[in-house]
Amino acid sequence: MIKQDDITFVARESLKRSGLVLSVDKGYLLESRLAPLARDEGYPSIEALISSARRDNSDRLLWAITEALATHETFFFRDNTPFDLFKNEILPVLSRSRGSVGKLRVWCGACSSGQEPYSLAMILEEERARLNGLQVEIVATDMAPRILEKAKSGVYSQFEVQRGLPIQRLISHFEQNGDQWRIKPNIRQMVTFKRQNLLENFGALGQFDVIFCRNVLIYFDTEAKKQVLTNLARQTANDGYLIMGAAETVVGLSKQYAPVEGRRGLYLRNDGPPSARKKFAAA
Question: How far apart are CA 125 and CA 111, in angstroms?
Fold first, then answer.
């Protein structure tokens, strides 16, 4: 059993680094997620791992603990609605407004092991003929280096590809190697992975036409949510879109975004041109 003092310490340090709100009664969560980390790091127990983290001036162990506690649950085409919106409504609108010589930038924040950005890349490959030469860049970020390495590899187990991925897309976009599947090079090359903590300044990433930030803010406290949304608005093009999870909202948290009526989880910049909303409604 993990001591209450250790739980409080880990909860405080994880909140500071990632915005993750960890209730002090979640000792069972620490045990299930930190036991593998303790083994990997060569410690005989979770208590020994935490004790060492308290003395670690480099901060490496505390970051490793924070990453282990973060939720990395994801799968291909998770909740089809945002992907249908992207394919059937957002892409037609933005391809018209950006023109054949333009460029479309998409950002997947907190991308975990990469299924979301790769899902978007598959859609873009399949819709290439309708994009009229529009160049598309997908940037995918996460704060956890280990999970980013998996995402970059594009290698998934049989279980992972069976979650949300239609058989036609599996055949078209993956190569099988034993009991594993690897995304084909043309799809992997469409996504650039970078390490980025959403609580830190991400202005260097530049502006984006579409930002996917789904099922992330639900783990943050109110102030962290407000700050992240403020920063996201700065990185959203004037007529760009923010896509959040079905259980998330900007209501009461941000004045920079307004929901698009009838499109669950979709938001536009409040100060964007009225034509953006009209174009979307007509798509």
Answer: 19
